[in-house]
C-alpha cells in the first residue's frame, strides 16, 4: 500500500506500478545487478596501450549489450525534466582524453546533441571550450569566456554535473575550475563560493533542504530514488542532511529510504511504498559486506520471497556510497532465502553496478 498521497503525477504512476506482478521498473532487460568485468580507465594525457587486454577486448555494460571496440560507455551528468542532476550512461568514441571528452558532451549544442536522451538537457552554455589537466588526483578545468553565460538557477547544477562527471574517473578526486586561466574562487553569475581545495563529491548532489534544527549537528548522506521518463525509470542521487543524534550511517540510509524524499518532488523510494517495513537489527559490516535483516514487510505482497528490483537496487546504490561498503546482503527474519524478480535466487551479496542509468529514454 502507498503510505502517502503525492501531488506530482509522475509519482502517482510510479507508486501504482512499482509492485505490478512479474514486472520491475528498472532494468527490465537486466539479468543482474552485479557489475561487468572491471574496466581500466586512462588518465588524462596518458597514451593508449594496445597491449593491455582490457583495452583491446570488447567491453560489456550492465545492460548486457556489447560496446564497440571504438567506443566507451561514459557517465554524463545532465539535467532531467525535474531539474535534477542525473547520470546517463552513453556510448562515446574512444579517446585518450576521456575526461575532456565527457565535459565537452555537457555543452549545449555540442557533440551530445544527437544522442541526448529525451527529457534531459545539458548544463554548460553553447560555445564553451574546455581544457582539462589531471595531476595528483585533481582535475584542473579551464573554460573559455562562454562558460560565464549560464543562468543563475543552473549554477549549483553546473558545479555538481562537472564534479560528478569528472570524479567517475579513478584518476580524479577533486576539481578546480578556471576561466581563461584564472582560478575561480566563486562562480561568476550567482557567486557560489568554491573551496581552494577544489570541488568533490563530498559537496553533495541535488542537495535536499531538510528540516534539521541544528545544521551544524548534522551530516550529509547520498541516497538513490526513482524518477520516471516516459515508460522507463531511472535512479536519481539526492544528498540529504540527517541529524547526528543517530551516528549509524547505514541505519540512517535505510531509514531515510523508508521515509522517502520530500513530498514536493516527483521522486520515490521503493521502500517508501511498503507499509510497516523496518530493520530488525542494526546493519552489520564484515569485510565490505553490509547485512540487513528486515521484517517480512520488505517483500511487499509477494508470497514467494521475491524482493522488488527497485527496493534491492535503491539499497545497494545508497549503501555502497558509504565508505568501506562494497556489497549488500539482505535477510528477512534472519533468513537469506530471497529471490530476485527474474526468479534467480539471491545467494550472494549484491554489488554496485558500474553504470547506473545505462541507455537512453
Automatic annotation (TrEMBL):
Domain of life: Bacteria
Residues annotated as signal peptide: 1-21
SMART domains: Germane
A Pfam family of this chain: Germane
Ranges of Acidic residues composition bias in the record: 46-56
Biased composition (Basic and acidic residues): 32-45, 57-68
Domain GerMN: 99-188, 250-341
KW Signal (keyword) present: yes
InterPro entries, alphabetized: GerMN (IPR019606)
Region annotation Disordered: where it falls in the sequence: 32-70
Keywords: Signal
Name assigned to this protein: Germination and sporulation lytic protein
